[in-house]
Structure formats: C-alpha cells, structure tokens
Amino acid sequence: MNAGSLDIAARGLNALLMIGFGLALGAFVARRWNQPWGLFGIGAVTFVLSQVAHIPFNSLVLNALFTRLGWTDPASVGTLVGVAASLGLSAGVFEESARWLMFRLWARKARRWEEALMIGAGHGGIEAILLGGLAVYALIQVLALQGTDLASVVPADQVETARLQVEAYWAAPWYAALLGALERFFALCLHLSLSVLVLQAFVRRRWIWLFLAIGWHAFVDAAAVAASQVVGPYWTEALIGVFALLSLVIVAALREHAGKTPVSTSAGAPPGSRPPIGRQDEPPSVERLDDSRFAAGHS
C-alpha cells in the first residue's frame, strides 16, 4: 500500500510533536519556576530505570498469567477488565515505586512543589521523546519498504505478517495518526500530578500518598486500555483528556499545600523567611525519618 504525501506528513508531524511536547514542558517549567535541567534528567533516568523492570514483568509474568487464567479473548468482559486492571496496576506499581525511590535516595533535597514538577516533566518527557523516536523509526522503515518486494527483505514465513503490518500502518486516516501526540500531551499532565502526589509522601510523611499515586496511575491506564477496546480511539483520547484536566486540578490543589508546609528556620535567619528558589532546608536525616509517622506506616 503506497502512502500519499499527507499521510507521510501527518505521521512525521506526530513523531515530532511527541518529542517537542516532552522538551517544551521541561523548558516551560525551567523558565517559569527557575528550575535546573538536572531535575529533568533525574526524572528521565527514573522513568528509564522503572521500565528495566516493568517491561520484562509484563512480558514474562503478566502474559503467562493471562494465558493461565484463560484471558485470551478480547471480546470477553472478564478478560478485558482483568487485563486492563493488571496492566494498569503494573504501570502504577513500577513507575510510582521508582519515583518514590528517586525522592528517597537520589533527589533527597527536592522537596518543593516546583521541583516535583520539573522531575515529573522529565519522567513524562523522556517517555514522549522515546516514543517519538520510535515513531520516526517506524515511519522510515515503512517508507523504505514501499515498492519493495517483501520476500527479498524478510524470511519467507514472515512475508504475509510483514505485509499486514505495513497495510495496518497506512490504514488509519492521516488525522488519526496525530492521536499519538495528543495522548502524549495528556500523559505529561498525568506525570506532573503523579510526581507531586509522590512528593507528598515525604513532605507530609504519610505512606497513603504513595498509594494514592499508584492508584491514580493504575486507574487512568486501566481505563484507557479498556476504553480503547470498547469505544475506539477517539473517545478514548477524549477520556484521557478528562483525566489530564483532573491531573492539573491535583497539581494546583497540592500547590496550595506546598505554600503552607511549615519549614524550619535556619540559624540566624529571620522567622518566616523562605529559602531562595531552587533551594530548601536540609531534609530530615534517615534516623529522624525512621522515627516519623511516615516510617511508622511502613511497619
């Protein structure tokens, strides 16, 4: 199947927007709240490390579990609910646990709302950038195959599969190709809210905030998986758009708390003074944290 110039342009634009959205959010947060790009990098590395465990778990454990439970018929309501819930919970547990470990072990001084935003921008931004890169690679691959005898480039037993994949790639109308970029835009909003939620586990010292982040992530992912099978891609993106708006509400609501969080005054500093942007009071020591209500919730 040969593609027209509009199809090619739309798919190329989709890939570039994915990459652009990830970088643009980082640039916006860095400029608006004077945040260092190092925090963006921390969030990006955290996402990549989370996938080192997340992807093999889904491939080796969840897929085997689905087969064992007989969850192989996508038309079955039970299968759809079970698979969607499992995939959503998997994403929530691995990514939010990684985010918690990052705040706990790496970004130990990042305890401000705007710092969490920059880390969230890095977490969601690198995901968008990587997916955009894969979209560019896929476009180059299928363009290279146009007018080519597939039997000359793939094994004989895979020719039909390759042909179907190429046809499926070009089957969607050009405007549907832009849904990927739209979804990444919405996902960036989600990652901002998740980063701020996990931060609350430290500034409020309660485990419940980590569980809320896992639950919110799992719910959004599960709903998106289920909706994609029931209502199709357009209504699915509309639903994800609603989740994006709710995510921004969460971000705004937790900013109010961040402005009221008591901080200890350093020696010689006047009462009520605040540290400069990008800095903060020294976080509690490990020993002090272990004695807190936050640590008590872990026992």
Measured between the Cα atoms of the first and last residue, the distance is 60 Å
Structural class: mainly alpha
Order of helices and strands: HHHHHHHHHH
Counting copies of identical and different chains, the oligomeric state is single chain
Main sheet overview: none
Explain this structure to me?
It is globular and about 60 Å long. Mean pLDDT is 86; it is low at 259-299. It is an all-alpha fold and 299 residues long. It has one domain (5-148, 163-259, 283-296). The longest helix is centred in the N-terminal third of the chain and has 33 residues, at 37-69. The chain has helices at residues 5-32, 37-69, 77-106, 113-145, 159-171, 179-203, 208-230, 232-260, 286-290, 293-296.
Task: Compile the SSE list and pairings.
Blueprint: H1 5-32, H2 37-69, H3 77-106, H4 113-145, H5 159-171, H6 179-203, H7 208-230, H8 232-260, H9 286-290, H10 293-296
Offer a quick outline of the entry.
With 299 residues, this protein is an all-alpha fold. The protein has helices spanning 5-32, 37-69, 77-106, 113-145, 159-171, 179-203, 208-230, 232-260, 286-290, 293-296. 75% of the residues lie in helices and 0% in strands.
